[in-house]
């Protein structure tokens, strides 16, 4: 069929910042509703969807550490922030009739299931959206790495990395008007040229396991759907 998704199972990574809208902190309810609406629509097309959400809109370990806080403690706080975002996203999705489960890498049984790989896969098979919270559960890692890790674990065909820009550029498009966007780029090039896609741990994880990554702009409505339909949107990063 012309209008059918090209992926069976995907992992969508949303940064915490995606939830703040035009603000500079926290969760903007209107924005979370919009994102949930797009995700619900795509899910409706029959794609198995897992989500990893960041926490940068609430707390970022590195920033706090640069101001003198103990890094590991700050990172654990950052992971707790992702749980708040996961719950916010969960209720917005469920309001739209999508069944979801939050699985946390840090046990918090009153608010989320523990992360159990086989159980997550079962939820996906049953058509539930699984939201992975608390990153990897380990300090000194990022939610991008958690996204690559979970994507590989659940056998996702692709990691969809939603960002604020249209894709991967040869320099920062927010600062350089001559920045050129790549349609396609290899993992090795990303690492060699230090291109801003994900941190090196996440990139090498994706590279080592042949997990393609599509970097695209979340702020343009309809983009998640386009990506799922196989339209050329953003930048494809692959081996
Ligand atoms: N974090 C961590 N381990 C992980 C994932 C996240 O320690 O596996 C912490 C880290 O401090 C990070 C914060 O959680 O700064 C929020 O996650 P991240 O910065 O990746 O969120 P995003 O930039 O996607 O909003």
From TrEMBL:
<protein>
    <recommendedName>
        <fullName>Uridylate kinase</fullName>
        <ecNumber>2.7.4.22</ecNumber>
    </recommendedName>
</protein>
<feature type="domain" description="Aspartate/glutamate/uridylate kinase">
    <location>
        <begin position="9"/>
        <end position="217"/>
    </location>
</feature>
<feature type="binding site">
    <location>
        <position position="172"/>
    </location>
    <ligand>
        <name>ATP</name>
    </ligand>
</feature>
<dbReference type="InterPro" id="IPR001048">
    <property type="entry name" value="Asp/Glu/Uridylate_kinase"/>
</dbReference>
<feature type="binding site">
    <location>
        <position position="56"/>
    </location>
    <ligand>
        <name>ATP</name>
    </ligand>
</feature>
<dbReference type="GO" id="GO:0005737">
    <property type="term" value="C:cytoplasm"/>
</dbReference>
<keyword id="KW-0418">Kinase</keyword>
<feature type="binding site">
    <location>
        <position position="55"/>
    </location>
    <ligand>
        <name>UMP</name>
    </ligand>
</feature>
<dbReference type="Pfam" id="PF00696">
    <property type="entry name" value="AA_kinase"/>
</dbReference>
<keyword id="KW-0067">ATP-binding</keyword>
<dbReference type="InterPro" id="IPR011817">
    <property type="entry name" value="Uridylate_kinase"/>
</dbReference>
<dbReference type="InterPro" id="IPR036393">
    <property type="entry name" value="AceGlu_kinase-like_sf"/>
</dbReference>
<comment type="function">
    <text>Catalyzes the reversible phosphorylation of UMP to UDP.</text>
</comment>
<feature type="binding site">
    <location>
        <position position="75"/>
    </location>
    <ligand>
        <name>UMP</name>
    </ligand>
</feature>
<comment type="subunit">
    <text>Homohexamer.</text>
</comment>
<dbReference type="GO" id="GO:0005524">
    <property type="term" value="F:ATP binding"/>
</dbReference>
<comment type="pathway">
    <text>Pyrimidine metabolism; CTP biosynthesis via de novo pathway; UDP from UMP (UMPK route): step 1/1.</text>
</comment>
<dbReference type="GO" id="GO:0006225">
    <property type="term" value="P:UDP biosynthetic process"/>
</dbReference>
<feature type="binding site">
    <location>
        <begin position="13"/>
        <end position="16"/>
    </location>
    <ligand>
        <name>ATP</name>
    </ligand>
</feature>
<dbReference type="GO" id="GO:0033862">
    <property type="term" value="F:UMP kinase activity"/>
</dbReference>
<feature type="binding site">
    <location>
        <position position="169"/>
    </location>
    <ligand>
        <name>ATP</name>
    </ligand>
</feature>
<keyword id="KW-0547">Nucleotide-binding</keyword>
<keyword id="KW-0665">Pyrimidine biosynthesis</keyword>
<dbReference type="GO" id="GO:0044210">
    <property type="term" value="P:'de novo' CTP biosynthetic process"/>
</dbReference>
<dbReference type="InterPro" id="IPR015963">
    <property type="entry name" value="Uridylate_kinase_bac"/>
</dbReference>
<feature type="binding site">
    <location>
        <begin position="136"/>
        <end position="143"/>
    </location>
    <ligand>
        <name>UMP</name>
    </ligand>
</feature>
<feature type="binding site">
    <location>
        <position position="163"/>
    </location>
    <ligand>
        <name>ATP</name>
    </ligand>
</feature>
<keyword id="KW-0808">Transferase</keyword>
<keyword id="KW-0963">Cytoplasm</keyword>
<feature type="binding site">
    <location>
        <position position="60"/>
    </location>
    <ligand>
        <name>ATP</name>
    </ligand>
</feature>
<comment type="similarity">
    <text>Belongs to the UMP kinase family.</text>
</comment>
